[in-house]
Amino acid sequence: MITNSIDFSTELAREGLAFSNTKFKSNKRAEICAASKEAKDAKKNIWSLGNSVSEVLSKMGSTKKNGFSNMPRLCGW
Question: How far is the C-alpha of 32 from the C-alpha of 19, rounded, in Å?
Answer without folding.
Answer: 9
